[in-house]
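Justification of resources, computational component.

The compute hours requested in this renewal are based largely on the per-chain cost of generating structure records like the one below. Each record pairs the submitted sequence with a full structure-token output. That output is archived, and it is also reused by downstream analysis tasks.
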Amino acid sequence: MYGPFSAAYSGNSMGGVIDITTRMPEKFEAGGDIKSTWQDYSFYGKKKTFDSQEYSFNVGDRYKDLSFRFDVSHLDSHSQPIAFVNPLSTGNATAADTVVTGAIANSNPYGVSAQVLGESALNHTVQDNFKWKLGYDITPTIHAAYTLGLWQNDNNAGFNSFLRDRAGNVVNSGNVNIGGKRYAANFAETRAEQMHWSHGMNLKSDTGGVFDWDLAGSVVEYGTDLSRTSTQTPTLAARNGTGTVTSLTGTGWHTADAKGIWRPGADLLGKHEVSFGFHHDLYTLDNPVYTVANWQSNDTGAISSNSQGKTQTEGYWLQDAWDFNKDWNLTLGGRVESWHAYDGLNQAIANGVLKSLNQAERNELEFSPKAKLTWKPLDRVQTGLSIGQAYRFATVTELFQTTTTTVGGITNIVNGNPNLKPEEALSSELSGEYFLDQGKLRLSLFQERVKDAIYSQQTLLSTGAISSTPSNVGEIQTYGIEFAGEASDVGIQGIDLSGNATWTDSRITENSASDAAAARAGATAANPNANQPSTGMRQPRVPEWRASATIGYRPTDKLTTSVSGRYSSPQFSQLNNSDINAATYGSGGTAYFIVDLHAKYQITKQVSASAGIDNVNNQEVWLFHPFPSRTYFAELKYNY
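The structure output for this chain reads:
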């Protein structure tokens, strides 16, 4: 079982769960990998090439009961622009405004005329990942493991202004005159320095007998997390000067889980597997913003704003998988969760003075029942009916993070909402599977009703800034059909097929309180339909159609090739679906169909080479920001 249908997982598993465990070596092994990519970028007719290189290495071994594994990777990546400076006019130009050319006429996501002044958030990222894992077999059936992880990231988010003055000089700051209208050109460079530590601990038994248990814990710590932005013009910023430093240093979380599985040997009206457990997590937010004299070197200064807070969840769950007949299984479970939000603090400058607001503590207690009935009438056929309730509590950032940051010249205004209610979902699914000789087919009908859905709507303002505030959506109803399948050696040996297609009708069925507030606020210059209701509209970020398919061909034991296609219908970002122009920055998302070509050749037992082209048809895709254009990649891998 997965997502909301398993009592073992909390409410944030509504969309599904991926549980990954790294295999420990049984003997000496080592490997290395070199990968390069090149992207042909051409949005707005600006043709460029962006490249990245990634290098990785791993080594591991086992000596008697002790095993170890060490993995390291290094990434040096240049991205396409993630954002565009795309403001509305602030009025008629004056004689003091610089007359410029090069801007590109455009419409914002809501259909209002705007000008694209240039590219922003051109990220040059250098990342290093280190992972050390030790395993020890205390007995043949009791295993201990410890994992230490280190992630380092240095990022420089640059910009590229399209604007030129009469002399042909680049213009990247100040008020400019475009066709007699005034626009504000506000480009800026942003730099990030991050170092995060993670620890994982696990102790478990694996007898496969009457009783097994599992203890696990994790700690994630933001040792250093700083984002630096100049408040000077780009010319002055190159010579240091004032700026802001946004810090997340000290933010982090820890988790602890205990799990038991009881497999009674007696026939208690059938075979049972009873599992139960406990979960604990604590999330901490520490997010001051400093005004600094030197934006490139100062780490702290006078506080201009601050967001702090904690959330804690404790859960207890019980589940029984009961084979009451050789063809039937009934799984029943329940989960109790206690949630606590506390130590919330927001600070901001008002009239030159730092003002503080202590947020009220919050407590919630919820119970989530789960059930699944499985019937296997034939060896090749299996059907299942699942129903489950789940609660997702607001995250510490959704509650308390209220801050304004700038990345590559784009201002991001984030507003927390300490009054968010927990999101409550009632999900159901009817599925059928048919097992082939080498593959399977699956058809499922699904439904989900979510009350007080938590959604953070990102809105593009007239200045080109992005504002986001999480809120509760009264009720969302979702219905859908999904078909998925995979098969090997179809027709002729070496032909493999896999794919899936999903149709979804997901709509906001009740949101009267928010609609009334939007009507009172009225339309805005950036969005003339901001005051329109959301009730009856499609759920943002959920397309009606989504599909993917892959055809693989193995002409020899050494060569594997594949052709893949991905499709999505358009989607919205605004609750009232007022973002009608999908092909621009800040939109919900364009429809797209992307084709990928991949090939792998096993040169020797240890050495393999891969190459391919992603988005070979060079589809222009917008999902709030532009996605990569046609991208070539090559990879060389060695495993011993």
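The CA atoms of residues 175 and 184 lie 5 Å apart. DSSP finds three helices and 35 strands in the chain.
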